[in-house]
Design brief:
By secondary structure, the chain is an alpha+beta fold. Helix content is 25%, strand content 33%. It has five helices and twelve strands. α2 packs across α4 and α2 crosses α5. The protein starts with 14 loop residues before the first strand and ends with a strand. The model has no long low-confidence stretch (mean pLDDT 96). Bound molecules: biotin.
């Protein structure tokens, strides 16, 4: 069903498909220990213990969505710059969705992808480090393609947004090509271009909105991210920085 991807240099040249697994990130982590190359994609139809950010689980209807992980070896990247792996992945997904002629595609910091204010994709990055360098990174992606019912969740899918039917293998190969392009940009050291593109599509940037931190509500304006990827919010005249665990969007 899933084949080697044609229009890439290395991502998706080796595709490992399993009908079911606990989490493709876990399986990719194991595979990464016994192989050296980069670009392997581990994909499944059904995760029994899919993992999300902040220790949450990731639920996706089996056989209707893309749930996969990519193994990369960004040994050129210092740990202090690891946020750029978030940037390239989120931008790759963003570019892929824009290419579907969807109107409002935004990145909700750090790496949720929203279409018309609803979440269509979640990303879970897990890095292995040695000294100051990142030796392996597992990029886990859950992208809603055909699912239409999300219960109470504020979520959407490609089918819901476009009314069209899609083939999961075709969408995977298109998406991988967009992600590889962004990864190559990072390899070439184009960090400021990447950051600029990221900020351009950042959800709620330059808008007054409400947030919760330490059980207190406040209003502020997202101005950007700092050099290690923390969120910057201007509250009255002061810019404060936040970690993922310290802030919730209201
Ligand atoms: C989020 O919380 O938004 C991140 C969700 C990431 C889900 C993907 S699905 C493929 C990979 N395997 C996992 O267990 N999680 C990621």
């Amino acid at each position: 069903m899933y084949k080697t991807v044609e229009h890439t240099l290395f991502i998706g040249k080796n595709v490992v498909f399993v009908p079911e697994c606990s989490s493709t990130n876990d399986l990719a982590n194991k595979l990464a220990q016994s192989s050296k190359g980069e670009g392997t994609v581990v994909i499944t139809n059904r995760q029994t213990a899919g993992r999300g950010q902040r220790g949450n689980s990731w639920q996706a209807a089996p056989e209707q969505n893309l749930t996969f992980s990519i193994i990369i070896r960004p040994i050129f990247l210092a740990i202090k710059d690891q946020f750029f792996l978030t940037v390239i992945t989120a931008l790759g997904v963003h570019d892929y969705l824009k290419n579907k002629a969807l109107e409002k595609v935004q990145i909700k910091w750090p790496n949720d992808i929203l279409v018309n204010d609803r979440k269509i994709c979640g990303i879970l990055l897990e890095n292995q480090v040695q000294g100051t360098l990142i030796t392996t990174s597992i990029i886990g992606i859950g992208l809603n393609i055909l699912q239409e019912d999300f219960g109470v969740l504020n979520a959407t899918s490609l089918k819901k947004e476009t009314g069209s039917i899609f083939s999961l293998p075709d969408e995977l190969s298109q998406l991988l090509s967009f992600i590889e392009s962004r990864y190559l940009q990072l390899r070439q050291g184009k960090c400021s271009d990447l950051l600029q593109d990221y900020l351009q599509v950042l959800y709620r940037r330059n808008q007054l909105a409400t947030y919760r931190s330490n059980d207190a509500l406040f209003t502020g304006v997202i101005t950007g991210v700092d050099e290690i990827g923390k969120l910057q919010i201007k509250i009255e005249e002061e810019v404060r920085t936040f970690d993922l665990k310290d802030i919730q969007y209201v």
